[in-house]
Structures are given as structure tokens and as C-alpha cells.
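Hey, can you fold this?
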Amino acid sequence: MRLFLCMPLLAAIPGIAFAEPLTFDAALQRARQEAPSLKAKALGANAARSVRGAAGALPDPTLAVGIDSFPVSGPLAFEPQRDNFSMARVGVSQDIPNLAKRHAQQARADSDIKAAEADTAVQARTVEVGTALAWINLAYAERRLAVLDDILSGLERVVGTTPGAVASGGARPAQTLAGRQAVAAMQDRRSELVSNVARARATLTRWTGDPAPEIAGPIPDFAVDAAGLRAGLDRHPTIQMIDAQAGQADADVRVADAGRRSDFGVNLAYQRRDPRFGDYVSAGVTVSLPFFTRSRQNAGIAAAQANAGRVMAEREASRRALAADLDADIADHVMHHEQWMRAQSTLQPLAEQRVKLETASYAAGRASLVDIADAYAALADATITTLDREALVTADGARLTLTYRSGNR
């Protein structure tokens, strides 16, 4: 009853969570929802959409208030009531940029939205890949620890028989020291693996926000489609982001080109004089005269065009780099898979067989405890090496599939 009453209080304390263990897919989903960097990019895209409504709109009108023809010298100086020229003026003016410039500003705002969305997609890919690798790393870190615990338990059982063997004369007293040294060395290795588990869990916390993530479910097996990944590079989020930047550069060219056209303005003023005289209304139109386009507008157009060319060159450079990284990662994946198969089919079985043979020889009095310790150490090395290589293959598959897949897959 007391625990039941405390449940709401515990749930309200930050850092206390009753979450279920995270499967691979659940970890990815939580990272998409909780990653602060992804929220920041999404807010940036929202900001770009909010600005779009004002793009291409007319500037705010201007209110002007003043006094015209106020006498400051002569016989009527500072006596405006005696002449018929002094008047109070209030007016409104409105600038009207040319239509091409307004459309270009709207296009620039649209390109800003696409660029912000593309930047969000790039960050989403980074979060997804980071979470996937963190989950896989934690899974294999826990498996390495479990495997070493089994090997350590077997070694401790053998070392535990040493006092009896010494008492019966079947082993030398110094062999008990060798056994304890072997156990201590393997315990040191276990401490390292425990640290690796904690580090992997901390990395997964970074991506998911879960303060103490526990994983569950099978480790994913990604089938690497090299041809499909190569074919989709042009739709990769990084390339799409550069395409969006190219759209921004093209919009800048349009804005600069629109500067060669005239802008307009209208103004209206009401002028009030002494009641003895009549009032006035003034209206007018202004037109900008871009006479010096060669030294002004054309320079801006040339700069915008050069920037657009720079973006396209960077796109090609990025695509080549992406293709080269993909080919290099595929080559590493093939190598890692071959090494894993070799460890699984040769190295680990040989180490297991050596432990069995040395154990049998020790029982028959033909091997020492040092031989047993060496065999168990070799088994630990081979088993963990096999897991390391399997982890590389799995991480390669996740990295290749999630990093290089096209944006619409």
C-alpha cells in the first residue's frame, strides 16, 4: 500500500523511468522523437516557413509630418499667420518594388524552406545512424561480457581443483599460483568489458534520452545492396541539401537581376494653411532610375552567378566523396565478413578444442595448470575476436544501409 502511494511521486522525479527495454526499432523511434539536435533543425525549418508569408510583400508605408514654407527672415519672419505660404503637412508614401524583385524574394523564401528541410533530413540521418551503431555496440558489449563470464567460470572450476591435486601429489604447489594469476588476468579483462558496456550504454543514452537504457530483441541483420546504394546517391540527403543550396543561389541570381528594373513609389500629402487661405492636396509617383547597371547591378549579378557555380562544383565534389566513401566502406565490409567467417569456422573451434584437449591431459597428469590457463586465455581471445568481427560486420551493414540509402527509402 505504501509503495502504491509513492508511485505518482516517483514518476514525477526526473531521471526515474519505468520504460520497457528498447528493441532496435524502438531505439530508433525514440531517438527521432527525443534528439535535441533534430528538434533544433525542425524549429529552424518552422522559422523558415514562418518567414515565407512576408516574402515579396510590399514594405510598410511611411508617414511624414512637417511644416512647409515657414518664414525665417524678412518682414514676415516667424509670423506665418500673416502670409499665405506657410502650411502644416501630413502625408503617406508607399514604396512598390518591381514585380520581378518581389517574385524573386518569394522564390528565395521557398528555397530557404527547402534548405532547412534538407538540413533537417541530414540531421535525422545522423541521429539514426548514431543510434543504430550505439544500440549494436551495446548489444555486442553485453555479449562479450557474458561470453567471458562463461570462460572465466570454467577456468575457476579448473583452478579450484588445484588444492586437491597438490594434496594428492598430482600437481606442484606452485601451480596454484599460476592458476590464481590466470584468473586475475581474466578478471582484469572482465573489468575492461564492464567499462565498455557502461560506455556503450552512455552513448545510447545520448541519442535516446533514456537515462538507463536496457536493450532487448534480436540484433538486426542488414543485407547490403551495393548496387542499389550506388544508384541512389543522387537522392542522398547530403546531395539533396546541396541541391537546396543551389536553389538558394539561383534565387539570389534572380533577386540580383531584378535590381536592374525600376522600382516605384506613390505619395499623398495634405497641406493645411491659415483658415483665411485654402488647403492643398499633393500626390506624386517616384520611379527609380538604374542608370549605372554596369558598376552596380551587374556586379551583384556576377557575384550571385559565381556563387551558384560554386555550389554546383561543391555538389559534384560531395557526390564523388560520397561515392568513394561508399566503395571504401563496402570493401571494408567484405574484408570484415571474410575475417568473421574465418574466426567462426577456424579460430574459435580450434581454441575450444585446445581447451578440451588440455583439460583431458591435465586430468591424466600430462599437462600442467599453466597449459590449462594458456588454453583458456586463448579461448577468451578467440571468442571475443569472433564477436568483435561479427560486431564489425553488423555495424558495417547498419552504417552502409542507413548512411548511404537514398532519401526516399
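Oh, and this one too while you're at it.
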Amino acid sequence: MEEINANQEILDQTEVKPVIVQSSPKQVRLAISAFYFMQGVCFASWASRIPTFKASMGLNDAELGSILFALPAGQIITMFFSAKLTTHFGSKKMLRATAPLYALALTFLALSTTGWQLAAFLVLFGITGNLCNIALNTQGVAGENYYGKPIMSSFHGAWSIGNLAGALIALGLVNLKLGMYTHFWIIALISFTNIAFNGAKLLNYKKPDVAAEKTKLFTMPQGILILLGVIAFCSMATEGTMFDWSAIYFEDVVKLPHNRAIIGYASFMFMMASGRFLGVYLIQQFGRKKLLQISGTIISIGMALAVIFPNIIVAIFGFMLIGLGVSSIVPMVYSIAGNNKEVPAGKAITMVSSIGYFAFLFGPPLIGYVSQLSSLRYSFGIISIFGLLITFLVTKIKKIN
């Protein structure tokens, strides 16, 4: 209990004042990590089945790109009120309410038989996912301050481990020829179990005061938050491309059979997860600014290798470099934004996310359209530019703590 009380002053600097915390910093860290893990599993369950949707519905690259537009569209819709809800109800209540809805929305995707049905369910998946995401990252910033160490990367590392686990589960179930509906319900039930077991261990907050209630519904980002948002945009455009198109790239360009194409996605996620846990150490050694610059360079190198030499060995190595490069960028950006003293954590994260999520809105569809006009290989080459842009933009930020 002494360790808990010692962290109260630090925790008071986050979204609103906390109530008495019943969980130790380690328990809080594990609980938050579990929620990140399950959100990663849910997302990977969808992403790893994209080739199946594409094949079963007979979609070409442009048609798939248009449908993929629906997921970030749902995420963008909630940007205008997700921070307000998180500030009003607290990230703990919001997370316990939205996490089961996100898992349930996953199961609806398997009911799709046409492109428009898949698009409609993806909008719902995006809405519930972003409400969950804002609450989870706000809880993550609070948990980092409460723990007293830069552990935000480890939270996102838990998401990546969950993503890798979800991809591997899908790989096994695809080869066992288990249907998507059963697959997605297995994941949903695991998610419900996690919420029941770990939900009470999250950090709790009092209701904000009247002044906080009268803040604007949505505020445009300014100053450093704009630069952070553009950096997040470049990173998320890369991530979105890898999430939605990596398995198809390995199937169409690297020429792997359908039941092995997930290897490309899994290799990317493996290094993304590893890099996020390693990021806690690297931030302490190099600082956030230098690490952001290095990360952008690694993204460009990895993408260039995968495009220039699309054989299985080099492509896997290139995808692994991309995973390492993007691994710590968004966690660092969220941590920097969430600790901005001028803006509440939930609102600052939403400001940055509102820019970053436009990458998910335009990135994956752009890949599909360019691929239809030329080839999937050349469309991936466009993404390598984003890594160089990240390195350049970081130099424009004068001070990063």
C-alpha cells in the first residue's frame, strides 16, 4: 500500500483525480497489458482473414481497398466524441463497456456474404474499436505515470504480442479448416473472460468537475500536437498497409500458397512486438527524439528491401525491419502527447489520433487503387517514403522529454 500511495501525486497529473487505488502498480500494469493484448488478438483475427474474405467474395484489389475504407471511417466517426466520453465517465468505465462490444463486433464480420455487408460491419468494428482504443490509451498513460517508468511501449508491445498470437491462431485454424464464425466467437469468449478477470484492477477516476464538463466536444490540435499527429499518420499508414495487405502481398507477389501467406503478417508482428518491449530500454538509452529518427530510417530500408527483392527470405527480413521500425513510434507519440501539461491526456491523445487515423482511412484503400492501376509491389514502394518523412519531421520538434 505504501508503493501505491507514493504514486498518487504522479497519477494526479493525468486525466482527472483518482479515487483510492486498490491495486498495486504491478497489478495495474498486468491488467492494462491484458486489455492491450486482447485488443491485438481481436484485430489480428480480422486482419489475418482478409485473404479469405477477398477470395470468397471474388474481390479485386480496388474493390477490397474500397471496402477496407469502412474500418477507419468508423474510427474517424467516433473521434469527435470519444475523448469527451472518456473524460466524463473515466477510462476504466469506458474500457469495461467498450471492450466487450469490440469483441462482439468481430463476430458480426463473419456473417458477411457480400461486400456491402462486410463494409457495414467494418464501420461498426471501427466505431467500437476506436472507443475502446481511446479509453485504453488514456488508461495506458495513467498506468505509465502510476508505475513511475516509461512503460507505454510495453503496453503497445502487449498489443503486438496479442496481434501475433491472433495471427498464429488464425494460421492454425485456417489449416484446420475451421469456419470464421466459430473462430471469431472463440476469440470473443476469451476477450469476455479477460474483461471479467482484469476489469476491476484498472485505475479508477472520480467524475470530472463542472469546468471539465463544459470543454468543447472536439478541439483542433495545435503546436507540437500537429507534428506528433503527422508522425503518427506516417507510422499508421505503414502499419495499416501491413495489417491489411501483408498477407495478400506474400500471396500475390512473393507467391506463397494461401494457407502460408499469413507468414508475412506474422513476421512483421513478431518484430513489432519485440521492438515494443525493447523500446522501454532503448528510450532510456537514446531518448525519444533520436529513437524516432532511427525508427523512420529502418522503416524505409525494410520496405525498400521487400519491394526490390520480393523473394521469401528477403521479404520476410524486410517485413521484420518494418515491424521493428514502427514498433515504438505510436507508443512514444501517445506518451509525449498524453503528458502534455496544457491538454488533458484523453483529449491530447484524441487530437493526435484524429490526424493519425486518417492514415488508416486513406492508406489501405490507396494501396488497392494503385495496385489495380499498376501492381501491389509498386504500391508498397510508396509507403517507404513515409519512413523518411518521419525522420525529417522529428528534427522539427525542438524538445521531447
